[in-house]
Design goal:
With about 80 residues, the protein is mostly beta strands. Helix content is about 5%, strand content about 30%. The chain has a two-stranded antiparallel ribbon with strand order 1-4. The protein has a two-stranded antiparallel ribbon with strand order 2-3. The two termini are about 25 Å apart.
């Protein structure tokens, strides 16, 4: 089975020279949608953060998350439960 995910990036510019860009290539250069593969774990952990009250995901800490991969978001501190 595995974890299925999609990465999508799009850009649009209006004006005299309109431009549109769309890509489903993730931060590791692989086409999505796809499942996590064994070599994805060579780049660190992939942690889905879930709100325990609502059961909804609220973040995805991974090199596959553009904001962490690009350094826009600072790396969180992770405390693993025993």
């Amino acid at each position: 089975m595995g974890t299925l995910f999609t990465y999508h990036e799009s850009q649009y510019q209006s004006g005299p020279n309109p431009y549109y860009y769309s890509s489903f290539v993730d931060t590791l250069g692989k086409n999505t949608p796809r499942r996590l593969e064994a070599d994805d774990f060579n780049y660190g952990d992939h942690i889905l953060i879930v709100d325990l009250t609502t059961g909804k995901s609220i973040d995805f800490f991974s090199v596959l998350n553009f904001y962490y991969a690009s350094g826009v978001e600072p790396l969180p501190s992770v405390d693993y439960l025993e």
